Amino acid sequence: MNKRKQFFLSFGKDFLGFVLLLLFLILFFNIESFKNERAGFTVPDSWLNVNTIFLGIVIEAVPFILLGVFVSALIQIYVREEVIHRFLPKNAYAALLPAAVLGAIFPICECAIVPIVRRLVKKGMPLHVGVVFLVAAPILNPVVAASTFFAFRTDLTVLYARMGLAFVLSIIIGGILYLVFKNRDQLKWTKEELVGRQVVLATDTAPRKMNRLKQTFYHAADEFFLMGKYLILGAFIAALFQTFLDRSVLQAIGSNEWSSTAVMMAFAYLLSLCSEADAFVAASFGNTFTTGSLIAFLVYGPMIDLKNTIMLFAFFKARFVLIFIGVVTAIVFISVVLLQILSLI
Amino acid sequence: MEKQSDLGFHAYIRGIILIGFALLMLAFIITGNITYYIAPTMMPFIYFATGVFLLLGVIQIIRSTVKGQEEEQLCDCGTDHNVSGSPITKLLIYSIFVTPIILGFVLPDKLLDSSVAANRGIQYGSGILAEQTRNESTKEEASSRAEAFLNDPDAYYEQLETGSKANDEEHITVDEYYTEEGFNQYYEELAEEILTEDRIVVTEENYLDMMTMLDLQLERFIGKPIEIVGFVYREPEFEDDQLVVARFGMTCCVADASVYGTMVTTDEASQFENDTWVRVTGILDQTEFNDFRIPLIQLREIEIVEQPESPYVFPRFSF
């Protein structure tokens, strides 16, 4: 009796998957007719805009998320915890500078960095070093430098200030978070993970029986599903803001260097743009906002934005995420306003 | 045993969802609709993602078989493979992944229109003109300049070199193009070239270049005939005889698309609704709008055209 029930259950599950695959295939082969006939229903234009921007962000971010989860999977499989400990300076503060330099060497954008940092911290990298990585890597990379150069060709202060601030501020942010959290664990661990981890720690020398390449692929797929849902949710909310938020409202609020800096930072947070493209959006505000506030936009957005926040909350303790966001926001805001008051930018 | 079959089921469903993503991206690539979402410079990443999705999907389905599951029990990693949550949570999570696939297949691809332009604000010319007055602070830059170069000069220059192929046909080397002087020289040469022609024809390929050039050297082109294709757009404060022909310029994806437009004055302006695609010919002039000097086209001829196959324009350079 029980066996039959189990049979139907497993048959039902297989059937469900089959139907889903069939649905995808039918859609795939009839895409033109679906798109052109609007399939018998109409969607308001503004919601079609939301849909287009939503899919645009998802499709654009997906390759980088995949890169991120593969790097993370490779770290999981191939990098042993001792290696990380061996290479990091013993002094917590001395580790900050090399972390920022390392962030500059890896060309990783902000979508890919969250899974990688999470993995490194799980592997025993100190949290504050991970934080430096998290905020520095998405800005300090050659592609971002090139796109910022193109967007602000006539005013290269923006490029230099963006890169310089990212480097210096990432170290300051890492230092402050070390002062707050020291080496306390801020990751969320599930019960199973902890149990599994104990086993791994206990049987570290056990032979690995499964093909490492296959393991990498398994981890990458699992992690894609872990990360992907937050990315998709974040992309959707960002698409709503992109469609319905009237940017001229912002311009009305952001008149002096204090308020314009604050407005542009809030804006960078909500838009959740890729750090490789945000310079062009910033340039489109050139006429109405101060250079300083544009720099704040370009420094703050890649460090923390809406879609990253959702990912961070899923993997780190809420208190840590809140303090992290608070510190990043305060540091970026204060330094940009200070530079403006000193009229350096 | 039950847990094992459960894991197998998740691997199976995930495999199918991954294949679904691959199919969606493949469909976008085949139909060419991908240009509504992503700029051509990003295409290598899209091909990469499509291939990886397909590969991962197939691997997941193999993983879900009984044999694959037995093998997985031997994995010593002890983390991450578990799937937690109640059945409803799981259903919700999988629908998050299925939603973009279905939406992508079913909903029509929408070209961003004037309502989005209104939200984003429009740039007359390339929008860089307004910044011309801010170049004095070079001294203070020195320290941050050093920092920027310290970060990773090698990778940066390497990046510059990869961009060189795209510009091979230009007289100017890429290294020059990537400096401020080289940049000005590039547009100087472009301007010389355009000045020898009877009229300025703004095409999809040179759109953003032309906008920048007109910004930099507008006075040299005043009085020249110009031809341009774009969609009609108006700002609330426009007079009855004013409209803008505009295009969305995209760098990476639609989320970063900005509107670049040129103002046109004509008595017939009211006959053309927003979002109508038009070809405009006229004489180039200048005007002031919100305290900025911007290019203006004195209309000679305007005709309604079909929406171009590639409605977006893209920067000429490549990463």
Describe the structure.
The complex is a heterodimer of chains A (345) and B (319). In chain A, 77% of the residues lie in helices and 0% in strands. In chain A, α11 (212-244) packs across α16. The radius of gyration of chain A is 23 Å and the shape is globular. By secondary structure, chain A is an all-alpha fold. Chain A has helices spanning 2-29, 31-37, 45-78, 81-87, 96-105, 110-122, 127-136, 142-151, 157-181, 191-202, 212-244, 247-253, 257-271, 278-283, 291-303, 306-315, 318-341. Chain B has 319 residues and is an alpha/beta fold. Helices cover 45% and strands 18% of the residues of chain B. In chain B, β3 and β4 form a beta hairpin. The longest helix of chain B is centred in the N-terminal third of the chain and has 30 residues, at 2-31. Chain B is elongated, with a radius of gyration of 26 Å. Chain B starts with a helix and ends in a 15-residue tail after the last strand. The relative contact order of chain B is 0.12.
Low-confidence sequence ranges of chain B: 128-177
Largest sheet entry of chain A: none
Number of helices of chain B: 11
Q: Rounded to an integer, what's the Rg of chain A over CA atoms? A: 23 Å
Q: Sketch the major β-sheet of chain B.
A: 5 strands, mixed, barrel
The SSE string of chain B, one letter per element, is: HHHHHEHHHHEHHEEEEE
Calculate the terminal CA-CA distance of chain B, rounded to whole Å: 51 Å
> What is the overall silhouette of chain A?
globular
Q: What proportion strand of chain A?
A: under 5%
Label the overall shape of chain B. elongated
Cα separation of the termini of chain A: 77 Å
Compact overview of the structure:
With 345 residues, chain A is mostly helical. Chain A has helices at 2-29, 31-37, 45-78, 81-87, 96-105, 110-122, 127-136, 142-151, 157-181, 191-202, 212-244, 247-253, 257-271, 278-283, 291-303, 306-315, 318-341. The termini of chain A are far apart.
